[in-house]
Amino acid sequence: MNVILMGPPGSGKGTQAANLAERLNVRAVSSGDLFRDHQRRNTELGQLARSYMERGVYVPDDVTIRMVMEWIEEPDHASGFVLDGFPRTQAQAQALDEALADTGGIDRVAFIRVSDEELTRRLGGRIICAACQRPFNLSSSPPSAEGRCDDCGGDLYQRDDDKAEVVARRIEVYNEETQPVVDYYRSSGLLAEVDGEQPVEAVGEALSQALGI
Fold first, then answer.
1. Of the listed 23, 41, 126, 169, which one is catalytic?
2. What is the model's pTM?
3. 38: domain CATH number?
């Protein structure tokens, strides 16, 4: 089964993608994973992506699609996959459909729906351990001791991109980019939406039901 899982930052998409992949007995991957892997291995595509990122501009769709398709075409992924947060633009969605046209295409697209107000609350309360990178949330999963990591005792801090004004812009940009993608897959009959404001386990069950697994 070939699945795309969409959702805004703070929707818990990464956790749900991993859970879905386990249920389907396939692998999950995000474009960020692929960027990091290619740059770590210093591949031709990794060098190309880095040349754009160092200039502070978006990596072109064709470069991202090439990375995704290279990963999909690996023998280990022949039984299916979960794409975590990709595609992010309608152009990427159309390019992905064209690239997969001869191999069965995408089976289902699931969208985790969360209100802007809830996303702001979640992201604005996120703090991270400077030592081990474990995340906490001041409202939903606070540390046992204020300012200290439960795992290693390291100092907790808030990333710049989790500060209120940046969070608001991240959500705005995501909505601008993603709504056309949601509409694209809805019109194709592939889209299933689930309520992402439920407990994590309930969201997972809703996704399984929506995908028929």
1. 126
2. 0.82
3. 3.40.50.300
